From TrEMBL:
Protein name: Histidine--tRNA ligase
Subunit structure of this chain's protein: Homodimer.
GO CC annotations, alphabetized: cytoplasm
Gene source species: Pseudooceanicola atlanticus
GO MF term (any one): histidine-tRNA ligase activity
One protein family per Pfam: tRNA-synt_His
Chain positions recorded as L-histidine binding sites: D73, F74, T75, R100, Q114, E118, Y312, Y313
Length: 373
């Protein structure tokens, strides 16, 4: 369903007016309004998300510029713009269409308006997190919405602390945003999953290339040999202990109001010290949210929150959902993406990146839920 499919001119005008109001609110709070291109180089998005992005983005080709993708969100182009010369600290706001393929759910729009606020400021990350959350909450306060929060940094820290190889940790990190794949890797690395027979046969063969036939495809023999050696090294790595797997499971089960979640996380950190700093980051953010007037006693916090759709966030994550229609996508969402600024910063000669956090709102959903301009 496209953005304006079935919409009357009056409804279109209402959505546009709502978007303008939201952007103006962010601008009045000190954010600089910016425009971003609709067509983005596909190579940049593929480097960030891998081939999976093709299933969600509209791809086209240009004879001069090569493969392009229609803008799936604003965060990537805003980060690129900032890393190429923006002063710090900086705040940006924007409003415009984004485009997402919806092959499994016809009810969801494949083109819709998005309004956002992005803050680039490393002086006090907890305060910046709280500011974005509070401003998005205020901008959507006319609606009855449920807020959910989490922090991707906790699970990342837990993976970093596992007593296993760097290669296994890297594999787990890559799939933190794919819960099923993450679980299957955990089970395999813990020795809980039966080995794949074809892989066992390959590793036991004295000459894996004996019956390989003619070399075809893009991968050269040296690359295949390196992959086989990596598989052999992994097979020789001791399994992750049951104790560590159980602690990961306990961590992923944490779903409480924020104050109680912090208490539980501190208890878990006694047995899993690698998460201690990440837990204290959550505690500092809680104080900053409270200072912004957010009622943290009723604010939901879930360690596993954001793992299905927030793949470039590496810290604080949040979303706002309609209470009466939980099947709808989030009316607003956002989070911290420090790692993204480092990745995109390398392209502009600033590999150190800069701490950054942002939030986006869908004015079309706000109007659908009864919001007026």
């Amino acid at each position: 369903m496209a953005l304006w499919q079935g919409h009357t001119p009056e409804l279109r005008a209402q959505v546009r007016a709502c978007a303008a109001r939201l952007r103006d609110e962010f601008a009045a709070a000190g954010a600089q309004p910016v425009e971003c291109p609709i067509l983005l180089p596909a190579a940049t998005l593929l480097d960030l998300y891998g081939e999976d992005i093709r299933a969600r983005a509209y791809v086209t080709s240009d004879a001069l510029r090569g493969e392009q993708m229609m803008r799936p969100d604003f965060t990537v182009p805003v980060v690129q713009m900032h890393m190429e010369g923006g002063a710090e600290p900086a705040r940006y706001t924007y409003a415009g269409e984004v485009f997402r393929r919806q092959e499994e759910d016809e009810a969801r729009a494949n083109e819709y308006l998005q309004v956002g606020l992005e803050i680039f400021d490393g002086s006090d990350p907890a305060a910046a997190d709280a500011e974005v959350f509070a401003r998005v909450q205020s901008a959507t306060s006319r609606l009855l919405l449920r807020a959910a929060t989490g922090d991707m940094g906790i699970l990342m820290a837990a993976v970093d602390g596992l007593d296993t190889s760097a290669a296994r940790k890297a594999a787990l990190h890559r799939h933190i945003w794919r819960p099923r794949r993450f679980r299957s890797l955990l089970d395999r690395f813990a020795g809980r999953a039966a080995p794949v027979p074809s892989r066992v046969a390959l590793l036991e063969a004295s000459d894996p290339f004996a019956n390989a036939g003619t070399e075809v495809g893009l991968r050269r023999r040296a690359e295949v040999e390196a992959r086989i050696e990596a598989l052999r090294a992994d097979a020789a790595t001791p399994p992750i202990s049951d104790r560590e797997i159980d602690l990961i499971d306990t961590l992923l089960d944490v779903k409480e109001t924020l104050p109680f979640a912090i208490e539980r996380l501190r208890d878990i950190a006694v047995d899993m010290p690698s998460i201690a700093d990440a837990v204290e980051t959550v505690a500092r953010r809680a104080k900053a949210l409270e200072a912004r007037g957010v009622d943290i006693t009723s604010l939901e916090f879930e360690v596993a929150y954001g793992r299905h759709q927030m793949e470039y966030y590496d810290g604080f994550v949040f979303g706002f959902y309609d209470v009466s229609r939980p099947y709808l996508p989030p009316v607003a969402s956002g989070g911290r993406y420090d790692a993204l600024t480092r990745v995109l910063g390398r392209q502009s000669g600033r590999p150190e990146g800069i701490p950054a956090v942002g939030g986006v709102i869908r004015p079309g959903l706000m109007v659908e839920l009864g919001e007026s301009a």
